[in-house]
Amino acid sequence: MAEPRIVVAPAAFDVAGEIARLTEGRQDVGGIGCFIGTVRAESQGRAIVAMTLEHYPGMTEAALAGIAAEASARWPLLGCTLIHRVGRLLPGEAIVLVLATSAHRQAALDATGFLIDWLKTGAPFWKKEHFADGDAIWVEARETDAAQAARWR
Amino acid sequence: MAEPRIVVAPAAFDVAGEIARLTEGRQDVGGIGCFIGTVRAESQGRAIVAMTLEHYPGMTEAALAGIAAEASARWPLLGCTLIHRVGRLLPGEAIVLVLATSAHRQAALDATGFLIDWLKTGAPFWKKEHFADGDAIWVEARETDAAQAARWR
Amino acid sequence: MSEQPLRILYFAWLRERVGRAEETIAFAPEVASVAGLLAHLRARGEGHARAFAATAQVRAAVNQVFASPETALHPGDEVAFFPPVTGG
Amino acid sequence: MSEQPLRILYFAWLRERVGRAEETIAFAPEVASVAGLLAHLRARGEGHARAFAATAQVRAAVNQVFASPETALHPGDEVAFFPPVTGG
After folding, report:
1. Which of C9, C61, C87 sits opposite B125 (nearest CB)?
2. CATH architecture of residue range(s) C6-82
3. Model's pTM, two decimal places?
4. Per the CB < 8 Å rule, is B126 touching C12?
5. ipTM of this predicted complex?
6. For the ranges B10-19, B94-103, C46-55, which has the lowest average pLDDT?
């Protein structure tokens, strides 16, 4: 596999451009698995007006590169892209992108699922939700997310 | 769920535009599952120069709408798009697009996997591969594809 | 009384072997099921015989719904014959 | 001989409660493990005490690798404290 592309930054990402990076000029890709996470306007029954994502510069990028390498070891991937935004994000905005390419669809889809489960549970990001009434709270780690990621262990 | 979007046509599709159709102006989507199938330059060890996709106009669209409805019944989808190209396609070209949106990632990803498995095995399309030496053969249905789709039964 | 004929469609290599994409067949008791129609078509000519030689590789739809050999046919039905699907 | 200090980083609500994102601590035998450092920091002031009150909710990394309370520390190490991750 080519070097995975890892980006942790505030800027919005360009899905079509990212897909083109993994596929343009090559004819060995049979399937592109893709997942885009977006900010919902509601969290556990409360309306949110914004979300702030904090990360650990250096460690976060290294951790993402590490999981991309693990996915490549598990599945015959031709390419892999992980982009995670940080900073203040609004409902409706895209926050995370996973792309995995392979000669065959199942590897691409399984790797995509594995990577997003890990990004949601193992990556060094912390999420603060801002509510309409001015209240803001740090989200607590969810049991179901951890259980989801445990499927892969 | 909104009416699924079903397109069976020769034209190339615009992934970013299709994602925007399912997400723009809404704040309830938490995850977008996506799969793009592309034409590989090789099939079972032989180099191919093109592929022709034949379909059954009317039945194909109805079958795609039916499977989208089934996916919506199985998972809490907010939207679903199935686009399948037909006619002559070249290696490197995108041939099929599946999009499924949901409030949560697992439903979006599971529905995406279900839909592409079915598109590869149950949809009324027939594929002819054109080889460099001028030879052209109709692809035979693959056991592994049928086994894949049987996981969902 | 003149009954509506059956409309027959062929796809992929069945279309190529039969030599046409579509034809009509007068409705009659012996073609009142998919299996009956198939036997009738196989005897229709050389191309048809070649197309329907490997029955195990032939699938059918009646009025655009996947059908089995036992599926009954009625005047005016659209019957399609094709190989197992290989889409995507 | 002057040893390099430990560089301590705080994230999320630990950062907010401590009141800073980063500080340095002189290396000493009692802070030669993550658990030892945590106990030392908890006694450092009111904000620190509040940050480290719920130890079960505190996670650590040493030199950017997830660590356990038993992980040994060495002069010059970068030690980060943060809540369980909630990314994505």
Report:
1. C87
2. Roll (3.10)
3. 0.90
4. yes
5. 0.88
6. C46-55
